[in-house]
Each structure stands twice: as C-alpha cells, then as structure tokens.
C-alpha cells in the first residue's frame, strides 16, 4: 500500500468521526490545518447547524492544540483582505447554518502547541451562548483545498483587544 493510499484511507476514517451536537446545535465537516509542520498558527473550519427556534452564538473555543484560539473573519478594506477577531461570536440563526471556511469565518488557532500532522486529530470545545459546550474531534487535513489559504499567516503578535471591530458584519448562510 502506498503512502498516498494510506493517507487517503486515514483521512476517510477520520472524516467518519461524524457530527457532534448539543441541544439544537449540530457540528459537521470539521477539519483543521496549518501551512507547515513548523507553523505557529493554524485554523479550523466546520459547518454549524441550528435546528432550534432560537438564534445562538458560538462565543468561544477551548483547545489544548493552541495557546490562543480566537473566532476570526476576513474583511476587505481598500481592496486588501484583512483578518479580524470577531467579538461577540458567530451568529447561528434559528433554523439556519453558519459555515466556517477558508477565506471567511473560522477558528484561528494561534500559538500551536504541537505540529499539525496530516491525519492526526485535535480536540476542541466549542462554547455557545445557549447550547453550552460541545466537544468535537477535529481531523488535521493540511491537503484540503479551500477558498483562501490564510492558515500560514503569522498571528503570534496579534492582540485581539486592540483590534478595531466597529465595522464588522456577520455573514451567515441559510
């Protein structure tokens, strides 16, 4: 069996970790990535569905995979894409879904505590305003293609408390 075949089988098995849910919130298609084994930061992406009748918010993330997990988004300012921390969390509309994806909303993982090795798994706890905590297993998939590769950006000097968030808007997909 070739290394590529073994990696493909491993990823398929990890992706079968399936979804996680608490109350009316369901998490699917989660994965994380870093630009290289020596990267200081990475990111995690997923689909969050709200099957309830009340809007909820993803307000924080905990993980031992990074010293500083934050909720981020990309904004275009003067034709330049800039990453910003989102204060107040990501809105998940009642009966809707929010997609965390490359080039958009995502969980930024700054200060990685270990290399992100293809096909390994990290554990993350998502904290919602109403649904509470949901702990998920997140496979590392450094090879997955996406909208924009922002995981290689060095965010080690970022201080979210000094960012200007006054012009931020949520983007949700229903």
Task: Summarize this structure briefly.
The protein has 1 helix and 11 strands, in the order H-E-E-E-E-E-E-E-E-E-E-E. It has 174 residues and is mainly β. It has a single domain (3-144), classed as Immunoglobulin-like (Sandwich), CATH 2.60.40.1890.
Set out the fold topology:
Layout: H1 3-15, E1 20-22, E2 25-34, E3 41-50, E4 56-63, E5 66-77, E6 80-85, E7 90-92, E8 97-100, E9 106-112, E10 121-128, E11 132-139
Instruction: Tell me the Rg in angstroms.
Output: 16 Å
CATH class: Mainly Beta
Class of secondary structure makeup? mainly beta
Strand content: over 45%
Q: Which second-level CATH architecture applies?
A: Sandwich
> What is the fourth-level CATH superfamily?
PCu(A)C copper chaperone
Biggest sheet features? 7 strands, antiparallel
Secondary structure tally, helices: 1
- Stretches where pLDDT falls below 50 for ≥5 residues? 5-16, 148-174
CATH fold annotation: Immunoglobulin-like
**How many structural domains are formed by the residues?**
1
- Terminal CA distance: 42 Å
Give the % helix.
under 10%
Characterize the overall form: globular
């Amino acid at each position: 069996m070739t290394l590529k075949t073994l990696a493909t089988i491993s990823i398929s098995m990890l992706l079968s970790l399936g979804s996680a849910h608490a109350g009316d919130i369901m998490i699917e298609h989660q994965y994380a990535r870093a630009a290289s084994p020596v990267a200081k930061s990475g990111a995690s992406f997923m689909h969050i569905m709200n099957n309830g009748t009340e809007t909820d918010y993803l307000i924080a993330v905990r993980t031992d995979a990074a010293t500083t997990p934050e909720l981020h988004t990309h904004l275009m300012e003067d034709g330049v894409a800039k990453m910003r921390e989102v204060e107040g969390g990501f809105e998940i509309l009642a009966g809707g879904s929010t997609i965390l994806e490359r080039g958009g909303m995502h969980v930024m993982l700054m200060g990685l505590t270990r290399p992100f090795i293809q096909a390994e798994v990290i554990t993350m706890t998502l904290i919602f305003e109403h649904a509470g905590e949901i702990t998920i297993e997140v496979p590392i998939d450094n090879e997955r293609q996406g909208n924009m590769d922002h995981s290689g950006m060095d965010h080690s000097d970022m201080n979210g408390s000094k960012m200007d968030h006054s012009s931020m808007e949520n983007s949700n997909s229903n």
